[in-house]
Write a structure and sequence with these properties.
Chain lengths: 492, 287
């Protein structure tokens, strides 16, 4: 009996073992379904590897992207039979003045956790600078976007390395590659050709010494308003790795690579995507880390109270052409921030604070609003703009507001100087049409500025086709953040 | 057989054994490639594992203090101290730390430890397991100097006549490359007999690596981890000058900042930088 029982136990044990193995296998295969995205690192070797059929997905041609210049080349290759060939258009090319786009994985995305860099070989028909290369952009979420700016091409093949800020995040990445390139020199830029080959994710093993940073490694202090929401992407999120060559390679890294923390979540909260919400008055310090490495720099937010509502405009809509106002119907614009390269530093644009639409510009030097259709303002007598600066400013406010008619044949403009407490008259060229506005700014208080539209004889501005409004900080004045609302022309 | 015969037999046997070893050695030296054995010295005679916190064994190590003459002859920029800020033992590791600070007229401090007058030996296997610092201007080294090095008076010889064996030198701006060299009369400084070794898929500033030599009367083998990357033979040395490696040498481990070999740190160099030494081991008796 005992023996039999023992055998039975043994059998049970075996059965259990078998069951547990089988169930274990089932569990594994379930998991595999979740985790087993392709782990292929190759993107383009002699042909696209596992990319969508269209291979190259261009940026929007409506925004000036040229879709004609992308292809492959069998005669110029670094290695093997084929390389990617990109014909960068001239700045005035009718098909678009720059070229750029992305390569997308044809499947559900790849598991890139086993790699530490994206690498490729490239050469140019001439020495030139490619504005951006990177990965992680899929035109859907762009959650783990990475960009390396301004790579210098040689006329011989060179290898380029884009380190992955934290590979453990890339369990299902679709954005295999991104590039953007414009011509050489000033408008109309000169076109050229460059080739890329052996494009792939690699485990190099010889990149190290991460030095992540935010806010340029500074401890920044800013005043914001309750209910404000913004992205940490506006604070120069960077990851730097030391390459085998000893060079520190710095890439722009999306907020999702970072683990942010707030010293007081009753004041400021940061979500997984790096969006900061200001939920209470007080002060909170935002710090971060990537893969356990502390990020240099921090952002301290002093949240005073609710955002003041801009004064509601009172003029009849029939006397107004509105560019940006909750009080009127706005004309169509292409953008409220053109992010003009290479000199513009201004970040931000349209935001909503407590249900109020405003324009918020940070890191301000100049910014332009481009109207979709040129505007005839011949009937208008004034341009009105509401400005709020969050900081209590003691000195040096000096700005220029430019109304511009920029068309194929000529550019005409009216410039209006806006001085603050310490007004300085400028004698620089182009300021001949300045008049003082005597604006007196206070921190956190809206100021309405009404600029008379002067006769064309005085300013030269052709009022029949105004299409650009530029706000500029001049004379190194102390303006870093602006809120703008109620941007409109009116007639008295 | 009488006693003498027995003795002569023993001598013959010993001679035969020696001959075998010699044949073996010759066979090896005729073929100085990476298939050679690197473990001929098996008798551990010195080992510092740095296992006791806050303790540097004064029976093994002494210090060089100061900034030397002309920055230790190389225009190095650091001032060596033996303060715990610059040299300490923690968690089983000797830490040599280069700090950016104004100190006795220098811009940086660091440390240099040596076994001079304490542990000196001719021939043997010398190895250390080290994680190196990083960045432009960091110049760590693990090296040996002839015990008779001096100003040329008494029984001393001036450098390079006393000999120098650099087991490992490294430039912080080349994080995957180390250098192994010998300096002596006719082959010193820029003219040293040297070879570099580069890691393919790893780097020296992110983990520990073993740096060692195997030094015999006929050659010096250089290895990193399990890779023998160079053999400098007596013959090779004598083509350039005199072999001065038949006398005792002492060990030096230091972390220099700046200097002729690497150039000054730049604005990207992060301070402080550390050189971590897990152990130093010396073996003698080859076969």
């Amino acid at each position: 009996m005992k023996t039999i029982k023992y055998k039975y136990t043994k059998a049970t044990f075996l059965l259990l073992l078998l069951l547990s193995i089988t169930s274990c296998e089932r569990e594994l295969s379930d998991k595999a379904e979740f985790a087993n995205y392709g782990t292929t690192g190759d993107i383009f070797i002699d042909a696209p590897v596992g990319l969508t059929d269209q291979f190259f997905v261009s940026f929007d041609p409506a925004g000036g992207a040229n879709t004609e210049g992308f292809g492959t080349d069998e005669s110029v290759t670094y290695q093997g039979e084929s390389a990617i060939r990109i014909d960068v258009p001239a700045g005035d090319d009718v098909n678009g003045g720059y070229i750029g786009g992305i390569f997308v994985d044809r499947g559900v995305g790849r598991n890139l956790t086993g790699y530490d860099a994206l690498t490729f070989w490239a050469k140019g028909s001439t020495t030139a600078t490619v504005g951006l290369v990177g990965f992680g952009t899929d035109f859907i979420e762009d959650k783990y976007a990475v960009g390396l700016e301004n790579i210098k091409l040689s006329t011989d093949w060179r290898k380029y390395t884009i380190p992955i800020p934290d590979a453990s995040k890339l369990i299902q990445e679709k954005g295999m590659f991104i590039f953007s390139a414009g011509g050489i020199g000033t408008f109309p830029e000169m076109g050229y050709t460059f080739w890329m080959d052996e494009l792939k994710f690699e485990k190099l093993g010889n990149i190290g010494q991460p030095q992540p940073a935010m806010a340029s490694g500074e401890d920044r202090v800013e005043t914001k308003f309750l209910g404000d929401q913004f992205s940490m992407a506006d604070y120069s999120l960077r990851q730097t790795f030391n390459l085998a060559s000893g060079i520190n390679q710095t890439v722009i890294a999306a907020p999702s690579y970072f683990s942010f923390s707030s010293s007081d979540i009753e004041v400021a909260r940061v979500n997984e995507s790096g969006i900061v919400s200001l939920v209470g008055s007080g002060s909170a310090k935002i710090t971060a880390s990537i893969a356990g490495v502390s990020v240099a720099g921090s952002l301290t937010l002093n949240v005073a109270g609710g955002f003041p509502v801009a004064p509601a405009p009172t003029l009849a809509a029939s006397n107004v052409i509105s560019i940006f106002s909750d009080g009127y119907t706005d004309v169509a614009v292409n953008y409220y921030n053109g992010f003009w390269q290479p000199y513009q530093t201004t970040l931000g644009g349209e935001i909503t604070i407590d249900g109020q639409n405003v324009l918020n510009y940070t890191n301000f030097n100049f910014v332009g609003t481009q109207l979709t259709a040129p505007l005839d303002i011949s009937e208008m007598t004034h341009f009105s703009i509401d400005i709020l600066m969050p900081e209590v400013l003691a000195t040096d406010i000096d700005m220029l507001i430019v109304l511009k008619n920029e068309n194929a044949t000529e550019t005409t403009l009216q410039q209006q100087r806006i001085g603050g407490q310490t007004y300085q008259w400028s004698t620089q060229t182009g300021d001949i049409n300045d008049t003082e506005s005597n604006a007196t700014f206070e921190g956190g208080v809206w100021k309405t500025i009404k600029i008379p539209i002067r006769p064309t004889a005085e300013t030269g501005l052709d009022k029949t086709g105004v299409n650009l409004i530029i706000i500029e900080r001049i004379k190194s004045s102390n303006v870093t953040e602006l809120h703008i609302d109620n941007l409109y022309f009116y007639k008295e | 057989m009488d006693k003498n015969n027995k003795n002569s037999m023993r001598i013959t046997t010993t001679l035969l054994k020696t001959l075998c070893v010699l044949v073996l050695l010759i066979a090896f030296s005729c073929n100085p490639d990476e298939t050679q054995t690197v473990a001929e010295f098996k008798n551990l005679v010195l080992s510092d594992e740095f296992d006791t916190d806050d303790f540097i064994d004064s029976d093994i190590w002494t210090f060089d203090i100061g900034n030397g003459t002309n920055g230790w002859g190389n225009n190095e920029e650091q001032f060596y101290t033996k303060r715990t800020e610059n040299v300490s033992v923690q968690n089983g590791t000797l830490i040599i730390k280069a700090i950016k600070e104004d100190y006795s007229g220098s811009d940086y401090t660091s440390s240099k430890i040596l076994t001079k007058g304490l542990k000196e030996q001719a021939y043997g296997r010398f190895e250390a397991r080290i994680q190196l610092p990083t960045g432009q201007g960091m110049w760590p080294a693990f090296w040996l100097l002839g015990a008779n090095c001096g100003d040329g008076t008494a029984d001393t010889e001036v450098w390079p006549n006393c000999g120098e064996i650099d087991i490992m030198e490294y430039r912080g701006q080349e994080p995957t490359v180390v250098h192994g060299s010998v300096h002596g009369p006719g082959y010193a400084a820029g003219n040293a007999i040297t070879k570099t070794y580069a890691l393919e898929n790893d780097r020296f500033d992110t983990g520990f690596h073993v740096f060692g030599i195997e030094w015999t009367p006929g050659y010096i083998n250089y290895y990193v981890d399990d890779v023998l990357y160079n053999q400098i033979t007596r013959q090779q040395v004598e083509e350039k000058g005199t072999w001065v490696f038949d006398q005792p040498f002492y060990i030096i481990i230091n972390l220099a900042v700046g200097g002729n070999f690497i150039g000054a740190p730049n604005e990207e160099t992060v301070f402080p930088q550390t050189m971590l030494i897990d152990y130093v081991r010396v073996y003698n008796k080859y076969l």
